[in-house]
Write a structure and sequence with these properties.
- By secondary structure, the chain is α+β, with helices and mostly antiparallel strands.
- The chain contains two helices and nine strands; from the N terminus they run ααβββββββββ.
- Strands 4-3-2-1-9-8-7-6-5 form a nine-stranded antiparallel beta sheet.
- A hairpin with a 2-residue loop joins strand 3 and strand 4.
- 12% of the residues are buried.
Length: 148
Amino acid sequence: MKTLIFKHKLLYFFIILGLTITYNGCSDDDDDFQTFLEKFDGTKWVHTDEFTFYVRLNDNLNKLIESWILFDDCYFYDVDFESEDVELVENSKDKLIVKYIDDEGSTTLTFTMQGETLKAVVKEGNEEDIIYFDKTSVNVDDLEICPV
């Protein structure tokens, strides 16, 4: 009888130990995960090949991507994809895909990191452009905005 009670206690001990290890193992993995937008929220990027073009990524569905494009001596400001026709296709750890649909068709933007560079693949219909952005510390909120 004592042997039977001892076996049951030992069995319960291993079940509780197993559940404890499983629970702790799972919760640590979830705490380290950050989406692309969470990781790069508020970061500012610049492209200066043919023109000067700043973007800021935001972890805010109403203001995902802000842009400033230099025209003469001032910047044209736009909140890209600030409409109802925006679909957040993917916001994983390493990739952000946003699809914008308007009367003229759809545009898909895919953002990934390549080292310290932000790679943006812009696909409209059958056309695809790749734009590389470097991280910047410029205060884009202080840029002179062109009158409308």
